[in-house]
Please model this.
Amino acid sequence: MIGRFALILTVLLVSCLSCVAQTAALNPQKTETFRLEPDETKEFSIRLRKNGFANIEWLAAHDALIAIELVDSQGSVLERVSTDDWNSDALYFVAPFEGTYLLRIKLKRSETSIHPQSISVEYSDRFVRPSAARLKESRVINGYQVRILATKDDNYVLFEKGSVLKRVMRASGGADYIGFSFPDKLVPKMTPKARAQAMLLRDTPDKTGDGVPDVMVEYFSGGAHCCFQEYFINLGETADVVDHINTAHSGMGPLAKNPSGGLVFETSDNSWAYWPQGFATSPFPSVVLVFKRNKLTPDFARMKKPPPSLAVLRQMAFKARNQIGLAPYYGDDSDQPSPLFNDYAKDLSGPFYSVMLDLIYSGNEGIAWQFFDLVWPLEKKGKDIFRRDFQKKLSESIYSTRSVPRPTTL
Model:
């Protein structure tokens, strides 16, 4: 049985290597143009030496949803970008070993990507350091020189070891990389809380708890309140992304050191932004995150806390009920307006569903639904529809799914 399994594994591996060898090669500075149907994938092979650089760029219609992966000969995805990522208009890659890599380009089906698209792709094998770049931050971590450089149009993070380039990150279009592991110059300008967070990040070499020194870099798109993404890059033999999380409007900061290793982080759930109405009244329940198997995962034990007293909940429910209008609620799937509040409702800094979320996220879901029953006026139709919409939004949260392994292929 073991021999048969080994034979099957060998056949699969040889098949994978054969696919790479037979795929059309993408050569430096040569543009390849092709046409894809929605959900169709095009593949090219790229030969790179160890520490060889590849800047892969593409051209497609602005509404085409493109996903690009770079895969090694074992089938492991080493880099992945998508045109729906805020800061992705190119894929920057430094090869950890010499070999042939597989480039996959897929036209993902979406509301805007329903027709065939012409796509062009090319790559450069030389990294050109940005001219007239301003050095924002620099730090040596575990033998790596990590620099954040800013130009008029782009921001870069360079990872070098022994003057050899190991990784490049780029944010284009005026967006910004913020070095939360580089707080030295920023500390005097920070609030006490921000200073404590920055020092905790700087003084914790291993923030993920996997035993390897790392760096945390935050990407900010530039906007009134959005958008943030956080990257954790291990600095061991190679500079590898451990995890990457989209925290949208909220950003993320450390709370404390985790006794089991790494840091405990806090962010807010953005699932409720603009729902069911404007951003100003959107609730953002707090979420505590820790690394488990190199993945940021909600720590519900640390989020759990006692609910307010029943007397306080009654007072909160009475105030919230007086703000709710009696017009029917038709729901997210209806074309009819579904107002929740009276026109004269003044204070919506804490709408009733904000209280429900605080209760649910702190481990008190039963009381949250009791609170909902207290708040919803008997005369207002659509209670079950609102419950359905609310539960649907709850299930769409990335924090309800981050414990599920993410796919390793397109």
